[in-house]
Every structure is written in structure tokens, then in C-alpha cells.
């Protein structure tokens, strides 16, 4: 008697689990930090490693694509069925900066498994979630007896996501013909919790800037001059303090222009999720809730635009004291954007606001990084049902719908390729994205493999449902 | 025919100028930065060097005095005239931090002479101004034919002034018997300009603190959590922004309690000084005036208390971006105090203010460094006339009166020893105290030597005038 497909998938995964994890650990050892120029060779090594591994997996095409910045990896595994839909999987192989002294219990680029968790920078964001597709497609083939995937499978794994994807849009535009797809699967998000598998329907966008403030031409003595000239660190602080009003709303004029407000139905769906606010606070490692008045925590992080200061610096920060008025100060700000907001408009608004705030005698300049647009998939899109079904099989549980507070270049793919974007992620909030001791739950990682193994067949079978 | 005393002093100084400058350069090469623990051995080396040099100069006693922190140097050169007054010279042998990359044109601890200026960290603040007394006393002896000074001369040169003199008060109290003096000469201030010699009548006090703010237990992802928890960098910025009101007044409740207001006569004297505000701005390397409404620039820097942020830091300050809510942030604040303000009261007021400002979910702690009290000498004190006369002889010019915006432990000496404090300084505002490329004008340094050479005789001769 032959195995059921689910059993066959699970058996295949179990048999190949050890080699899969060994390979992933090898990849995680490459510190592919795109934000730090001295790690550029590592980002390249990461791309080369992945291309070679995808070829070994069975992809007929596996190429390193150059950009003006860090390289991306592109791969193809066509279906024998010429009428099959084409699916493009998106992820990234670069990671956030990480150093042991930031609070890691072990070396961030020396993966370790503790208590069923794989700890390393990139374990969840995003190498682990890219890599589960390599075993997923092989499990799909093994369980179905196919010699090629049920869909024309393409992968695009970029190398600059953690730096705001500055060249991604151009890369997608240049290669739009080869990237053409009927649907995009973004594997760079998370789900509600270990017990509540969810499908994400949208991501916030992101605009980032650094504001540099220049006061005296050099540090000057605070006794000789203090109290009589403007201090750029004070100006920096006042900018940050002026960023929000007393209601927690972003006080930059024009910031909320065009914002797509939450519908009552969406607010109801969010409210139905088993949200334990105290548990969420513990996951956030934070000690109070705080934010825009009139919205719940989930609404604040998923569906409301925000402004945060990611870094501030100026003057003497060493031990002891130094009685100076510093010459310069700077703030790094990031703005999360929701559907309806335009990054170019945000940049103009922030520039006008800052120019209005900075006092006489302080010169300022603002450098914006590349922005990421917000992205939202309709709740009733049939392809979402296909993804929810596959995830439900893997998790043996119904699937709910969420949004993602983080940002990714999904909107560029949607815009350039004209394809709907679906989000398949198995990471959970406690995974510590961008934080010390980032990890991925091994059980969930393997559920990701399993979801990937079911998805291609389900998508191909139900593609006729897609309008 | 014998030389006039003034000519004899000048000739002696000219003859010994080269050796004097060589010795000073040797001292300036010792990076005696008291605020940086790794320079502790250099601060000790500086003390040892000075004690040996004072002994070589002729002081009969030259000792290194231990404190719980950095060592001080004490020296004595008694007068043969047992009825002579006793004068204690105060200065410091430690210096501010300095690094080439802060904007120095040359190595800060490798003295160079360019265009009649000696550049090095400590050239003006305070090694140069301590050291001129060594040649001054010898010129005094040579010109008068005396074998001992006209006053019982004592020197106390501390090693922690740039760290807020945390152990100075205790040191003075412990050695009050040996330090006993009829007058204190503080050589750690400046004068109006090269063309306008002035005597300073008071210094502002100083209270310093670092406020540390703790938000999430680790850096967290600004996409996943941003907009829903408090950000400690925002809290830090809001503290700094709340430090001043719209009138430029310090907004800490109780801050102005007890402040001795300027008299009309003092405001007149300040207004009579040849003050070129644009030139002052250039010296301040600043691009606008800014401060407490209702006061002139001189009043703001000499006679009004102030608050400045000397450093602020939190989150990611490296290249590129890092989309986090930082775990911690900090601000370093300093408060300049004027006569009538009590540092203990200021500390209490700042603690209460900060506790009131910091939002829920952010933990904070405040660390105050040791404070320096403000100090003011009556305008009509006869000893001030003695100092003004000596300076007038050296500069061949009348002498005016100012105050000093900076701070020193002069008030402790006044309080513990019960002696009036006089300020003898030849530094000018462009000397760049605490800034890159600190320098001393060689001409003025030698006028300092000359003033010191005249002062002991004048003070002894006019001591009967002192009430």
C-alpha cells in the first residue's frame, strides 16, 4: 500500500532533516551583513554558496546576479507541464549587523542548537525561511513521484534587504522578462505563534533617513561658551521630541496623507486573534505599551504608520565627562508606512518639517536611504486560500490572517511583475529579528518545508480559481 | 647703574625663555587625561615630573600627594621674612581628552610652535598657566636680589580638575594646616583679549550628570514592535528638549533658587568692555547667538546659570541603517552654576525633574559626578588691586575686570582655607580649551611669567592694606 502524500512528505523531510540543517548552518556561518562595507566579500560568498547549493538541489538555472551593490541569486526549476503557473519565491541572503558584545550568548555567526532552537544571525531573518524551500521542493517531487515541480518555480534571493534594498527595484525592472510570474511567494515574514499558524496579507513600507546637525565648527568649551550659542545635540533632541504629538501621532505635517484606514472587518479579524498583550510585551522585551491613541497594539504595529528613532548620537559618549558643546549630532529615523502612503511624499514632508524645526545657527542635512513601499493583498484572493490550505495541512490546524509590521520589497515585485504577492513565513515573534540571540524554532522550520512541499501542487491544481 | 626692576625681570625671562619652553613641552608630552582610566599612569607620570621640576626650580618642599583618585603636587618655598604673607597658587596638571581624529592638525600630545603659538592639549588649560610661575618666581628673585620669595609661596596642583575634582575638597580638608594661606591665586582662567588684560573676579560652578534610560531588555525590531512600545532614545531626546523653555531659561523646577542676580554696576562694567559680538562668535566657531532672553552674551556666559547637553547616545550610530528600537540611551548634562546656587539642591531638582519626565515603561538612573561650587571675589578687595597692578606692569596697560564662565575648585579653597581667591590667567578665548588645536600665545605666556614675577613683591608690600 502506498503512503498518503502527507505521510510521504513527512517521511522524506525526516530522512533529509540532518543534512538540511547542516547545510543551513554552513550558510549561517557566512556573516553576510549588507549594511557594513567590510562585510561585502561575505555577502558575495553567501550568494556564491547559495547558487551552488540550489544547483545541487536540482534547479536547472542558478545564477549570481550583479547589482550596483550586493549580488542577488536567481534560480529556475521549470515544470514539465508547459501550462503550469509560474511562481516566484522571494527572500534575501543578507543579514542585520551582529556582534557578540551586543548581548549574544554565543557567537552570532556560529550556529548552535539549544532546546530545539537554532540560534544564529539570519536563522529566521531570512536564511532559514529561504532555505526551507530547497527541501520543500524535493519533498514535493518525492511524495508526488514527479520529476519536475507542479509549477514553474523561480527563486530571487536578494542581498540588500537589510540595507533597504537600494538596487532591488532596478534589478527587478532589468530582469522583468525572466522574473515574470503569475504569483509571488514572499518568504520573509512571520506567523502569529507556534500554535496559531497564520497567513500575512500585507507589509508596512519603510522610509529611513539620517539627519546630521552641525553647530560650532569644532567642539567648544561649555563653560566659556555654554548658554550663549546653539547646541546641535539639543537641536537633535528637539527634532526627535517633536516627532510625535501628545496623542502619539506622528507630528510631521502631511505624514498621514493618503493613509488607507482600517475597515471595520479588518479590525474585527485582528480583535479575534488570541492576543495576550502581556505575553506580547514579554516578547517585545518591553515594559509598557505606548503608541498612537485610539488604536490597539495589533493595529499600531500592522496597520498604522509610525516614526521611530533608531539611533541618536552627538558629543562625548565615553567614560566620565567632557564639558563641551559638541560640534555635531545626528539622528537616524525610520518611518513605517501603510497602504496609500508614498515614500517620495514622506521624504518631502520630513525635509520640510526638519527645515522648520532646526534653529538658527545650526546647519542640517538629511540623507534618505532607499525606501520600501507598503504592500497589501486582498483578503479574498483565491491564491491566499491555496497558501492557507497548504499551511493548514502542514500544521494540522486552521489558518488565520494577519499583517506584518516589518517591511520588504514585495510591493516592487507586485508593481513591476503585475503579480499578486503571497506571504509564507513560519517565524514567530520571539525569534528576535535584528536582535541578539536571533533563532528559529526547528519544528516550525520543518513545517515551513512541509508547507512548501504542498503548496506547488495545490497552487497548480487551483490555479483556474485565480481570476 | 643698576637695571630697573622691570628691565631686570624682562632680561631674566628673555635669557631663560628657551629652556622654560623646552621644559613645558616635555610636560605637555605626557597625556595626563584624568577622565580616561587608561591614562591613569600618565597622570601619575605628570605629577612625578612636576614635583621633580619644582624641586629643581628651588622649592624646598615638592611632594606628590595621593588622593582616592589621581595624585596632586604640593610645593613650598618659604620667605626669609617670617612676617611675610602666605600665598597658595592653585592649578591642575591633568588635561581634557584629545585625539588626532577629533580635528587636530597635529598630534595633541606632540607640542608644536606655529606663528608664535604653542599648540598642545594642556598648553593653556592648564599646564602653561601653572608652569609660568616657575620662571616667574626665579625672575622675582633675580630682579630683586632676594634669596627667597617676598611671600611664603605654596603651590597645589591637582590631577582631577578635568574630571570635576572629585577628591579635591577632601584633599584640601585633610591638608588644611599645610595649605593655610592668606590668599589663593588661581592660575586656571583667561583674560579678555591680547589687547585688554583683565582680572577675573569669579567663576561659575558646575554640576554634571549622566542620565541612562532603559527600554526593551535588548534592541528590538522597529517593524515588528515599532509604534507600540516606548523608545528610550525618544525618552532621552524628550528630556533634553524639555531642559529649556521657549525663553531659553532652564526649565528644571527650582533651578534658579537662590541665584545672586547681577547688580546694575556689574552690568555697566560688563557693557563697557570692548565686546565685538561677531568676533566672539568667530572665536566660538559658532553661527548664531542663542540663550536666555533678557541677558547679553557676556551676562549669559559669566553670570547666568545654564544647562547644556555634552553628549547624547543611543541605538545604532554606525554606517547605513539598523531598524531597531534601541534597548538603552543616555545623555550627559552639565549645569553651570552662579553664586547663590547650591550643587546639592541642583542635584535634587534635576532628579525630581527627570523622574517626572521619563515615561512609563522606561527605567532611568542618574549618576552625578562631583560638583564644583561657584565663586565670586568682591570687586573692591585690596588684593585684587595688587594683582591688577602687577598685571598692568607686565602688560603696560590698565587692567579691567571680568568673570569666568568656566568652573574650578576655587570655591573649595575659599571655603576650607578661609582665604580670598584671586584669579591670574593669561589665556585668551581663542586658545581652544577642551577643543582640538588647543594653544597658548607665547607672548602672553611670558607676560604671565612677568606678572608672577611682580606679584609677590607687590602683595607683600601692600599686605597691610588687606583687611
TrEMBL record, chains A, B:
Keywords: Hydrolase, Metal-binding, Protease. Pfam families: M20_dimer (PF07687), Peptidase_M20 (PF01546). Residues 202-359 form the Peptidase M20 dimerisation domain. NCBIfam families: PRK07907.1, PRK08201.1, PRK09104.1. This is Dipeptidase. It comes from Streptomyces thermoviolaceus subsp. thermoviolaceus.
